[in-house]
Amino acid sequence: MKTLKRIVTIGILSAFTLGACSAPSSHSGVEGKFESIKNSDIQLRAFLQDMPKGGDLHNHLHGAVYAESWLDWAVEDGMCIDPQQRAITFPNGDGCGDFPTAKNALATDQGLRNEIIDMFSVRDFIPTTGWSGHDQFFRTFPLINAMPHRFGDMLADAANVAGEQNLGYLELLHTMELFETILPMVIATPMSGDVAADYDTLMSGPFGKALPEIIARAKANLDAAEIRKNEILACGTENAKPGCDVEIRFLHQPVRTLPPSVVYAHTIFGWHLMKEDSRFVGTNLVAPEDDFVALRDYKLHMAQIDYLYENLGERNVSLHAGELWLGLVHPKELRFHIHDAIKVGHAKRIGHGTDIVFETDYKNLLIYMAENEIMVEISLTSSDAILGIKGSAHPYEIYKAAGVPMAFSTDDEGVARIDITHEYMRAVKEHGVSYADLKTATYNSLKYAFVDAETKKKLIDSLDARFLVFESKF
Ligand SMILES: [Zn+2]
């Protein structure tokens, strides 16, 4: 019965997809408006900007901030500029030493400012031999530094860009308590590869003992950041900015390119944090999936997550999986990442999933994803910038035909210099996505959010109300 239903559904979906580009002109109301303007870039932009949107479920907080904000904060905070690396650096006891202060370096040198903005993003970037979009994209992060109190400023930035586009919810990926706390505690701890034994090793050492204190500090830092964000956005006043209306939750974000003891300890920390602080609603591993450590340890990371899931209790997991392509890695790496993320790593959502058709037995995997409602977070600009995959090369149509739920997300809107509206536009222009399907995707971005049920209902009710107003205009 299920199979028959699926075949019928796939048939209908396929027909609908095929028909999407040549939609009949009999649409009326909002759909008629959409059909009449969808070939005009600027009218489509205006329409989609106003269109109510649910959530952005794949948005890295560090990647969300635009270069100009980092530079403003560097100037205000007495940070330094490394003119060779085009990087923001921290002052030390001598101030900036041989480097100019950001204030001096950026006061008059528009050229340097432009170069730094280009370095912190893919603005004006053209891939060349030996330097791909992937290289440029991931190169940006080590160049960017800010004082810890800017956490709240980052939240304000991301929330306001979202609010200005009628987006109701952000699930921000964020890394806390890693490089200065957990990493030095465990980097020299030997791991056996037996995830049960390694858990005991980590928990019986300095990391395990310090864990309550680490969790308390993370919570306090987030408390402070939220207060600062609300101040910056003037929330609760008559001058409240659009970002005040955006509900924010966080995904704990371990870095998969670090040594096994560091990834495991940080994941354990996240597991506890998610239990103790409801603002952390899930976890997701970050950093280039094609990095040699990330590839080497992929199955180990899945086993680590599985151990915590089975022994410490279930948590929400979304995983970057299949953000790979033929040529970038050995073909054997394309065969199992999405499968293992779901079947071993308990992923309820998949980030990107770009290489799905290279997976072993991908057709059955798609069926499993559709039946179990494993949602795919589609980030079209990111896939284009990092993997060079766009248009008909992107698996959007594959997922759609299989009935796998999808939602659109920005990934790193500051680095890519885009916003969520831009991603909806790409969906329309590159994949002929209809108004009805855009609406489904935007509801999916709340349906599959990890936020608690009560808040989710509130967000969906708000989206319903906003659509009522939006659609009544046509
Ligand atoms: Zn991502």
> What is the first-to-last residue Cα distance?
40 Å
Q: Give the helix tally.
A: 23
- The amount of beta strand, in percent, is 5-15%
Distinct ligands, ions and cofactors found in the model: zinc ion
CATH third-tier fold name of the largest domain: TIM Barrel
List low-confidence stretches.
1-25
CATH class of the largest domain: Alpha Beta
SSE topology sketch:
Layout: H1 2-20, H2 29-37, H3 41-50, E1 53-60, H4 61-64, H5 67-76, E2 80-82, E3 87-89, H6 102-108, H7 110-119, H8 133-143, H9 151-164, E4 167-174, H10 178-186, H11 195-203, H12 206-232, E5 247-252, H13 260-276, E6 280-283, H14 292-296, H15 298-311, E7 318-321, H16 337-343, E8 349-352, H17 362-371, E9 375-378, H18 380-387, H19 396-402, E10 406-408, H20 413-416, H21 420-431, H22 435-447, H23 453-471
Parallel strand pairs: 1-4, 4-5, 5-6, 7-8, 8-9, 9-10
Antiparallel strand pairs: 2-3
Helix pairs in contact: 1-19, 3-21, 5-6, 8-18, 9-12, 10-13, 11-13, 12-13, 13-15
The structure holds zinc ion.
Residues 58, 60, 320, 351, 411 line the site of zinc ion.
Can you tell me about this structure?
With 474 residues, this protein is of the alpha/beta class. It has helices at residues 2-20, 29-37, 41-50, 61-64, 67-76, 102-108, 110-119, 133-143, 151-164, 178-186, 195-203, 206-232, 260-276, 292-296, 298-311, 337-343, 362-371, 380-387, 396-402, 413-416, 420-431, 435-447, 453-471, and strands at residues 53-60, 80-82, 87-89, 167-174, 247-252, 280-283, 318-321, 349-352, 375-378, 406-408. The chain has two domains: 47-65 and 150-471, Alpha-Beta Barrel (TIM Barrel), CATH 3.20.20.140; 68-120, no CATH class. It contains 23 helices and ten strands. The strands form three sheets. A four-stranded parallel β-sheet has the order 1-4-5-6. Strands 7-8-9-10 form a four-stranded parallel β-sheet. Bound molecules: zinc ion. Residues 58, 60, 320, 351, 411 line the site of zinc ion.
